[in-house]
Write a structure and sequence with these properties.
By secondary structure, the chain is an alpha/beta fold. Helices cover about 40% and strands about 15% of the residues. A 6-stranded mixed sheet has the order 3-2-4-1-5-6.
């Protein structure tokens, strides 16, 4: 049996301000650092013997990964960073306060942009230039992404980089983002396009999947934060 632990980063400044973030590289808040420390302490008590960590190119996830590893006394572990685990790109909604968007466009459209599988938010202009860390890989920053588009980059990463390790019996940790983890959960649990809008991934709450040797899910445990 092997275990996959997935977790959304601790609270970011964008979470705190309730704005759409996507690929914007915002830091953790003080609360976010505390959430990561607390999650790490809880994972340390479980003695999971993690073999590798996977995270995105965004510092809120990278810092969370480093904090977790420190708390479980495994800072020496390799961390594989990939843009494929980045948050969903919210296009022209990036940087906008969510309640203001809801007020301007209406509850129905707001929910479609935020929660549906196929709806693409308004796109960025053609003048946007990707960060050098993406250009160096030949990756062009999206103008906007649906959850489906995010799914189509997350799942290949999981199958190519995480599945082989799990099949070898090595426990894996993924620290990523609300939407990229929703995409992965959809794949792991075979959730329909219509039902994925009901899935929430809170900050700083580890989700632990236990698999059999064929990677069928034997158990799912969510380690919830106290005093939400």
């Amino acid at each position: 049996m092997s275990k996959l632990i997935i977790m959304r980063h601790g609270e970011s400044e964008a979470n705190q301000k309730n704005i759409f973030t996507g690929w914007s590289d915002v830091p953790l808040t003080e609360k976010g650092v505390f959430e990561a420390q607390k999650a790490g302490n809880l994972l340390n008590q479980l003695d999971l013997n993690i073999k590798m960590v996977h995270t995105s190119f965004l510092k809120r996830a990278i810092l969370t990964s480093n904090i977790i590893l420190s708390q479980i006394n495994q800072s020496y572990l390799p961390i594989n960073k990939s843009w494929r685990l980045n948050e969903r790109h919210y296009g022209a909604l990036r940087g906008l306060e969510k309640n203001s968007v809801k007020k301007e466009y209406g509850e129905k459209q707001y929910k479609l942009w935020r929660r549906s599988f196929k709806e693409v938010p308004p796109e960025l202009s053609d003048s946007v230039i990707s960060d050098s860390k993406y250009l160096n890989l030949g990756v062009t920053e999206p103008k906007a992404e649906s959850l489906e588009m995010t799914y189509n980059r997350v799942v290949p990463y999981y199958n190519n980089n995480v599945v082989p390790k799990l099949l070898d019996g090595e426990n894996q940790l993924i620290i990523a983002h609300g939407s990229s983890l929703r995409a992965l959960i959809k794949y792991l649990e075979n959730i329909s396009d219509d039902e994925i809008d009901k899935v929430e991934v809170p900050n700083g709450e580890p989700i632990i999947y236990t698999f059999d040797d064929q990677l069928n899910i034997l158990n799912k445990e969510v380690i919830e934060k106290e005093n939400k």
